[in-house]
C-alpha cells in the first residue's frame, strides 16, 4: 500500500492543513451538518468552509477554536497528526503529489478527487508518481546531488527566516574582543581580529586559482592573493577567519560543503555589518519609511550583494518584513535564491531553483535592459501569487554580469524607498505562454530554419532550464533573428 512520503518542513505544514481540513469535514458529516450550517456558526460563507475542508487555506488559532466549538470537539481533536481514515490518507497524498514540483512540471491538468475515484485508482496514480520521483533521483549525477542539497538548505533557511542567532552572537563576541563598538568594520580592524586569533597575514602572487585563501594552522598564517580585483579586500580574510572560528572539518559531501559555505559567509557578513548597529540603522529607516539596500551598503561600506544578504538576514526577524533575494546571471539563470514571502521561483521537478530561468518580466531581468546601471531600479510585478515590489542592481564579476534583487509583498512596500515607481509589469509564469514559448507567428516562420550554437553552462549547480535540452532561450533567439533578418518583419 502507498504511504505518505518523508516531508520537508513546508510539506509538514501543508500536510497539517490538509489533515485538519479532512478532519473538519469528517466531523461535520458525522454530526449531520451542512457547509452552510457550519459556516453560519463561525461567521463564514459556505464557500470558505469548502476551501478549509479541501486544505487550501491555513487557519488561525481563533478560527480553529471556533470550529472546534461548533463541531463539539476540542482543539486537540482537530490537530491530531494522523488522518481519520485510509481514504483520507490517500486523498491527502494525491493532493500533495499534485501540488508538488514534479507533477506541476509535467503540465498535466489537475485531477479532481471525487467519490467516484476509487482507492485502487488513487493508489495506482501514487505508485506511478513515486516511480517518476525515483527515476529522477536515480538519474541525478553529482551536480544534481549538489542541487538537491542546496534545495534542502534553502528550505532550512526559510524555516529560520535566514537568521542564524548563534552566528550573530559569535560575530558580536569577536567584535567585542577588538573593541569594535559599531558601524563599518575597517580593513585595519579586520587585520587586528586575525592577529587576536593568533594569525599573521601573508599576501602572495601565486595562490592556487581555485582558492580564495589558505589557512596554515601549523604556522598560524593566512595566505591571501596579492591581487583581489573586483572584491572587497576584507571579504576573503573574514571568510578564512570565520572558517577557523567555526572549526569546520573537511566536508563529507555536498550538503556539508554548502552548509559550511553558508555559515562562513553568514559570519563574515555579520562581522562586516554588525547586527546591533545594523538593526538600529534599519529600524530608523523603517520608521521614516526609507528602507533601502543602497543606504545599508553605503553606511557599512560593503558591496551591494553583501548588503542585500544582510538585509534578508535581519529584515524578517527584526523588522517583521518578509522578503526574497535573487542573484541572476544576465542570461536569466538563477545563481542564488532565498524567499520567505511566498514568491514562486521557477523550479525543476526535484524542487531545485538554481539553474532555472527567471521570468523575463521580473525585475531581476528587466534591470539588464536599463541603460542607467548606477541608479537603483525598482518595479512592481503582478505575479500569480500576488503583487510584489523589487529593487535590483547589476553587479559585474569575472563570471559575467549578475542582477542582485531584494523584493517583498505589496503589503510591505510602504516601508521602502522607491515604492513610488511607475514601473509595473505582469508575469504569468510558470504558464509557458508568458515568456518561455515563442509566439505562434515567430515559431511558424523560424522553426526548422534556425540553428543556434549553444553556450553550455559549466557551473556546478547550473541546470538546463526546463523545456530546453541545450538551455537556449528560443524567445531571445527568434527576436534576435527578427531584428537582423529584415526581410520578414511580420512573418508573412
Automatic annotation (TrEMBL):
Transmembrane parts of this sequence: none
InterPro entries membership: Cro/C1-type_HTH, Lambda_DNA-bd_dom_sf, TransReg_Diox_bact_type
DNA-binding listed as a keyword: yes
Domain HTH cro/C1-type: 24-78
Coiled coil region boundaries: none
Alphabetic keyword roster: DNA-binding
Annotated protein name in UniProt: Helix-turn-helix domain-containing protein
Species name: Paramicrobacterium chengjingii
Amino acid at each position: 500500500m502507498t504511504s505518505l512520503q518523508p516531508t520537508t518542513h513546508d510539506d509538514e505544514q501543508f500536510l497539517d492543513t490538509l489533515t485538519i481540513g479532512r478532519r473538519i469535514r469528517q466531523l461535520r458529516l458525522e454530526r449531520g451538518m451542512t457547509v452552510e450550517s457550519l459556516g453560519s456558526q463561525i461567521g463564514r460563507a459556505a464557500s470558505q468552509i469548502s476551501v478549509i475542508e479541501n486544505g487550501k487555506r491555513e487557519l488561525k488559532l481563533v478560527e480553529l477554536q471556533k470550529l472546534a466549538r461548533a463541531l463539539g470537539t476540542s482543539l486537540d481533536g482537530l490537530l491530531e497528526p494522523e488522518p481519520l481514515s485510509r481514504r483520507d490518507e490517500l486523498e491527502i497524498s494525491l493532493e500533495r503529489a499534485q501540488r508538488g514540483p514534479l507533477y506541476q512540471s509535467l503540465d498535466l491538468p489537475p485531477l479532481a478527487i471525487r467519490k467516484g475515484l476509487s482507492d485502487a485508482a488513487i493508489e495506482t496514480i501514487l505508485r506511478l508518481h513515486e516511480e517518476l520521483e525515483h527515476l529522477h533521483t536515480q538519474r541525478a549525477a553529482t551536480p544534481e546531488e549538489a542541487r538537491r542539497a542546496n534545495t534542502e538548505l534553502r528550505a532550512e533557511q526559510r524555516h529560520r527566516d535566514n537568521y542564524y542567532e548563534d552566528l550573530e552572537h559569535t560575530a558580536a563576541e569577536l567584535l567585542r574582543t577588538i573593541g569594535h563598538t559599531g558601524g563599518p568594520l575597517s580593513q585595519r580592524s579586520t587585520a587586528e581580529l586575525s592577529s587576536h586569533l593568533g594569525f599573521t597575514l601573508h599576501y602572495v602572487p601565486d595562490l592556487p586559482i581555485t582558492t580564495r585563501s589558505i589557512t596554515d594552522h601549523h604556522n598560524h598564517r593566512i595566505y591571501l592573493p596579492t591581487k583581489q580585483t573586483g572584491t572587497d579586500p576584507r571579504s576573503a580574510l573574514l571568510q578564512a577567519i570565520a572558517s577557523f572560528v567555526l572549526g569546520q572539518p573537511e566536508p563529507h559531501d555536498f550538503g556539508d560543503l554548502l552548509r559550511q559555505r553558508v555559515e562562513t559567509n553568514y559570519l563574515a557578513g555579520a562581522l562586516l555589518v554588525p547586527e546591533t548597529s545594523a538593526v538600529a540603522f534599519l529600524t530608523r529607516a523603517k520608521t521614516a519609511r526609507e528602507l533601502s539596500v543602497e543606504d545599508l551598503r553605503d553606511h557599512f561600506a560593503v558591496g551591494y550583494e553583501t548588503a542585500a544578504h544582510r538585509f534578508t538576514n535581519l529584515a524578517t526577524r527584526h523588522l517583521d518584513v518578509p522578503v526574497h533575494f535573487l542573484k541572476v546571471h544576465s542570461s536569466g539563470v538563477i545563481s542564488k535564491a532565498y524567499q520567505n514571502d511566498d514568491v514562486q521561483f521557477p523550479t525543476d521537478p526535484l524542487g531545485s531553483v538554481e539553474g532555472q530561468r527567471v521570468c523575463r518580466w521580473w525585475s531581476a531581468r528587466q534591470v539588464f535592459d536599463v541603460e542607467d546601471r548606477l541608479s537603483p531600479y525598482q518595479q512592481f510585478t503582478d505575479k500569480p501569487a500576488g503583487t510584489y515590489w523589487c529593487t535590483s542592481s547589476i553587479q559585474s564579476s569575472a563570471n559575467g554580469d549578475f542582477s542582485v534583487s531584494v523584493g517583498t509583498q505589496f503589503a510591505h512596500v510602504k516601508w521602502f524607498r522607491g515604492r513610488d515607481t511607475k514601473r509595473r509589469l505582469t508575469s504569468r509564469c510558470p504558464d509557458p505562454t508568458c515568456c518561455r514559448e515563442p509566439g505562434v507567428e515567430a515559431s511558424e516562420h523560424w522553426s526548422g530554419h534556425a540553428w543556434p550554437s549553444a553556450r553550455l553552462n559549466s557551473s556546478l549547480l547550473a541546470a538546463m532550464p526546463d523545456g530546453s535540452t541545450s538551455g537556449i532561450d528560443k524567445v531571445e533567439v527568434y527576436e534576435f533573428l527578427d531584428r537582423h533578418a529584415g526581410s520578414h518583419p511580420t512573418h508573412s
